[in-house]
Amino acid sequence: xxxxxxxxxxxxxxxxxxxxxxxxxxxxxxxxxxxxxxxxxxxxxxxxxxxxxxxxxxxxxxxxxxxxxxxxxxxxxxxxxxxxxxxxxxxxxxxxxxxxxxxxxxxxxxxxxxxxxxxxxxxxxxxxxxxxxxx
Length: 135
Hints:
The protein has helices at residues 2-13, 27-55, 62-79; strands spanning 85-96, 100-109, 112-123, 126-134. With 135 residues, the protein is of the alpha+beta class. Strands 1-2-3-4 form a four-stranded antiparallel β-sheet. Strand 3 (112-123) and strand 4 form a beta hairpin. The N and C termini lie far apart (54 Å).
């Protein structure tokens, strides 16, 4: 019985994954992954979110990696004046050219908002992050 209780406690205490990892296979998984990535921003901050974004991106694409380098250099300074952020809300999604999906989000903070746009591209191995953009 003690062993069973120990396993139950370990399962409850373990962090649960926010979403399936890329490459995403379905539109629902893709939507959930994009949302979870920005929800993670509220809890873990920009450095951790951009590590997750990079891990779920097209690693062999230099343009994608340059975009994520730009985001890593720029996002912390763009969030700092907004103060504490408390909500991420999906605002729109669009599909174009059969292999691209774009998700728009609004980050609500103490002193304003920030708009995010995550674009995913489907290649042979499934959907992965192709662009991480914010205003």
